[in-house]
Amino acid sequence: MTGIGRSAAVALLGVTGRRIEVEAHLTSQLPAFSIIGLPDTSLGEARERVRAAAANAGAPLPARRITVNLTPAAIPKRGSGFDLAIAMAVLAGADVAPRVSERVVYIGELGLDGRLRPVPGVVPMVLAARDAGAERVVLPTGNADEARFVRGVEVRAVDSLRAAAIDAGALLPSVDVAPVAAPPVLPERTPVAELSEVVGNPTGVRAIVAAAAGGHHALLVGPPGAGKTMLAERLPGLLPDLDDDAALEVAAVRSVAGHGVASWTTRPPWEAPHHSASAVSLIGGGSGTVRPGAVSRATRGVLFLDEALEFPRAVLDALRQPLESGRITVHRAAGAAEFPARCQVVLAANPCPCGNAGSPRQPCECPPATVRRYLGRMSGPLLDRIDIRVRVPRVTTGLIRGEDGTTPTTAEARATVEAAQHAMRARLAGTGWSRNAEVSGAWLRGPGRAEPGATTMLDRALDLGTLTMRGWDRTMRLAWTLADLQGDDRPGGQHVREALALRGAL
């Protein structure tokens, strides 16, 4: 006597999901349970979890040979999120759950008592199921709040294998169980600081506002205590709320990172890793399941690297790809996982190890060779990808007393940023870009040309070799942002000169 049962699950590689067909073949041979189709160790152990959970759900598996195949077989399958789909396929093959459909995707880890435990990465799993044409996704109660933000597919939350089987037509008595709640997530403290608190540094304020408006990367160089971190922490408050598409992209990354119910947010995320962070923690990776790094968790938001020159050079150079393309690809033996990394990178650095280089009052104690080695930790190609590079001077009592109160509040600056971004979106409609930092060099030299004669200084620097072609493009992108902040139709000479001044540090 044989039986075939089918269900569906989702395999994740990075934040990309792939629908997996789960086939269960039951034969009247010696009892055994095997799983094939490139499972990892945790997935191979599902046979013991499924057997115990089915027994405790009131539907013990028959004493037959059970073979479960996960197709396509060439795709690696990792994790315990396949447990429920395997159990439902087996119950369907045993005629216990007759209404199991391949149009229904099952997600969840089984406990030995039959309860369903939440799993990470539910948001991209539900997205993949919807895009593959699934009509319904059955998942643990602990993942329900996380999955409800995905529209276009029915989400059914169940607390146990018994409830899932009854939902699929199994004739089992309903039993109340205490669902496994999602692990608690500490509330995140996204900096929302007041911009008007910054005194004595109008250039730094102008740089941060321009970075927020155009999506530009920034480098702040100055002595300790000058206010570099203070400026960077005010950037998230200047950014507008995320739209639905951006919020869903952020939620997918945060879901894979294990944020659970806190995956959904309408505010741009903020990541600030310590300078002892490794390249894997910054860009993502892992020996088993590939997890997103800080640059991906900060997508659509801000990645702040304080004491940037204390990071190893190899770690900083790992940022070169995401700064240019807005995505990061992590290659492992089992395949390549791609994560979004469309974030703004803000770096803060001292001008030398002692921090006093260039100060008129505090003499620098570092030998020139030491300073060169210190600054050399940031490579030229990485530095060339940063649009804004400004020096942040140490605030003196004279600067404080001379403060004229013209520093805008966070609300005022945010309104200016939103107006500038509205102008960008209107100008770039139909191009696939939405901010000036994204436009191509061909556009800048074509439809996005500046006023006649505005780029004379840039052209001369390019001919002399003091400016690269990438530097030319990035200066003009910044000039466009400065023009948008002032409400001008096109950048003129004054915008180009200010853009060059904002790229002056280092």
Automatic annotation (TrEMBL):
Which residue ranges traverse the bilayer? none
Pfam families for the chain: ChlI, Mg_chelatase, Mg_chelatase_C
Ranges where the AAA+ ATPase domain occurs: 214-396
Q: Which SMART domains match?
A: AAA
* Protein family per UniProt: Belongs to the Mg-chelatase subunits D/I family. ComM subfamily.
Identify this protein by name. Answer: YifB family Mg chelatase-like AAA ATPase
Q: Which source organism does the UniProt entry give?
A: Curtobacterium subtropicum
